[in-house]
Amino acid sequence: MRAFHQSRGIESAAETISVIVRSCSPDRLPFLDEALFSLATQEWTHLEVLVMLQTPSEAFSKAAQALTEAFAWPREASARVIAVPIEAGADGRVHLLNQGLHAAKGRYVAFLDDDDVVYPKIYTRLIERLRVHEAASLAASGCRMARVDERGGQTYISKKYPSGFAHAGSSKFDLLRDNFIPIHAYVVDRWRCDPAALRFDETSPPLEDYEFLLNLAADHTFDLDLILEPLCEYRMHAGNSIWVNDGDVGRQALIPSLPLQRARHAMESRRLAARLVMTYEEWAHTLGHRQVPTRPPPAVPPAPGPEASSPAPAPDATPRGPLEVELQMERRLHQAARWTYRALDRSGPLGRGVYRLFARHPNRR
Amino acid sequence: MGAAIRVGCVRFNNSRFELERFSASLGVAARMAAAKGVDVGLIVIDNGASSGWPATGLDEIHLKTEGNIGFGAGANRILRRAMADPDTESVILANPDGAFHPMCIVRLWEASRNSPHALIEGRQFPEEHPKTYDRITGATLWASGACLLLPRPLIEALGGFDERFFLYMEDIDLSWRARLQGLGVRMAPSALFMHDVMHRPPRPAIDRLNLLSQRALAHKWREPSMQRRIEAEILRRGFYDATEDMPELAGEVINDPRTVAVTGFVYPDHWAPGRW
Fold first, then answer.
1. What is the pTM of this model?
2. Which residue of A116, A152, A229, B184 is 20 to 30 Å from A293, comparing CA positions?
3. Which of B105, B135, B136, B200 is the best mutation test for A, with the most CBs of A within 10 A?
């Protein structure tokens, strides 16, 4: 994988993170302004910012160019606008991502929609996680949700929700239930990825990011240690392509748009057939043991996830062996596997031995 | 001719990275203001031992360091120096660990032209303060000193910050005094200033200073029940063993029946109604 990227002249960009920002309409320039400001003030300064515009008019192109060049980018950073011609009437958002991936030069890659923002430390923290966790190809953080009202061109944040998507999941396995990792909440290390996996399916908007994560999760290790720590913000507003105002004025709620509802329905069969490879470490993390088996477990276990049928087991004071177990599990076996794991886990060394007999041996990455 | 706007910065042990980011962003924002015919200069005072100052390309004045005299006292030195120049129309105080949006100074200046006697706060980004503000007028109960425009008439009317507040609460006190005198306090939501206040490690020494300032605020504005609550919290945190050991509360106390209409003691979380 590394050789593939070296052949494209990326060796010199080992410290660089390429951030792909997509924008499809000049109406969203005020949002794009804030998205770029959040990138220009990042603590991680080795940035390559790629602003991908869908079939822009000359005016849109000039305005986006002026906006991008206005910021005081760090010395080590670069920012450029790339116009992507897309067939009239087509939804080119996914194509913009793939074109951005093709143009990106950095070892690390991240994405940012033009109406969201990232907090100043996000790339520093996530790249640090990837450096510490050498098996991980992707590191993700938590994400806060904000409700944005727009009137007369002014942005007004009416509400921020502290926990964001944490209710929807916190482990790789939870991806089989729903996507809880927004597209701008993770960083991918391209040197640790199969190049074929680094592509978005252009037939599945608006859930192309979910499809991308499921594909990547099938064969790559994720680091989700920061999943409960919000390092970015998902902004919901009526102009968002997947949320619309509830017709009930009194509720003032945002509900999934029809395209989003249709896409979720289409994803259902995909989700049921999804296969994940998880390391023993990721299994432990899923069940609340947040440290690798070779290290002593934490003194106080975290609260169990929403699907837990019983409280998380008390941490085992005895350090486990170094064995990593990779499991291939279909979703319908998910719950049974969790119960089995816990039962064997509680039965001590004999249970763990029986468990290992039935688990595939690791194919270390 | 002197600068119409002076940006004032109180430094304290800031890193080179922070100062470079601040300076670069100030340079860009000042150029945008100059394009609108507004000259911008800079006044700096160092309360600590910050790394060298990167050049901004602006007319800079570096005040003599007097040690760590606190934010309010440092800011007052800046305000006095700025007001000594008759050309200065307003001062923008800005935290050196932040960064200006390119249009920040322009938008603060435009907001000030609409409300020439008001304190104008730049909206902190990406994590703004949750206090409410009027969506049409920008009116709010208090303005944060992280990015704050003070026009000359207001500085002359209020005389600057109350230096009994070493760190924290001086901006809230200034805002309440402004409102008591019928002067406005406004948010300029389109004037963005990056200020990262999230994910900070625990800082007991700073928390202690914050609570002591809150105590002084409650004493000054005659809120004895709030003062007792804060003192209980100080004792609970172990910063002092007894109330008698806490610093003496001295200085002017405000005796004005209108204080209940301008203060925000009923909102102890944010000192104003909060949106979240």
1. 0.82
2. A229
3. B135
